[in-house]
Amino acid sequence: MRKGELKKILIIATGALLSPMSFQQKESIPSVAHAVSIEL
After folding, report:
1. Span 16-39, mean pLDDT?
2. Given Cys at both, which of 1, 9, 22, 32 links 38, Cβ 3.0 to 4.6 Å?
3. In the predicted model, is pLDDT for residue 33 greater than 90?
4. Three-state secondary structure call for residue 28
5. How far lies 26's CA from each of 5, 15, 18, 30, in Å?
6. What's the rounded Cα separation, in Å, for the pair 23 and 39?
7. Confidence of residue 34 (pLDDT cuts 50, 70, 90)
């Protein structure tokens, strides 16, 4: 970034909301994602 080589950066963090109860009941696993966009 400091050299000017990167103009746009997208960072995405993901995760799953796991619990032993939902796993035993064979339910779907909800997931989340947060995105941060940086433009110079």
Report:
1. 86
2. 9
3. yes
4. coil
5. 47, 19, 12, 12
6. 40
7. very high
pTM for this prediction: 0.57
Distance of CA 14 to the CA centre of its chain: 2
Residue at token pair 């995405």: 12
- Reduced to 3 states, what is the DSSP secondary structure of residue 32? strand
pLDDT tens sequence across 3-20:
778 899 999 999 988 888
Q: Which residues contact 10 (CB under 8 A, 6 or more apart)?
A: 35, 36, 37, 38
Strands 8-16 and 31-39: antiparallel
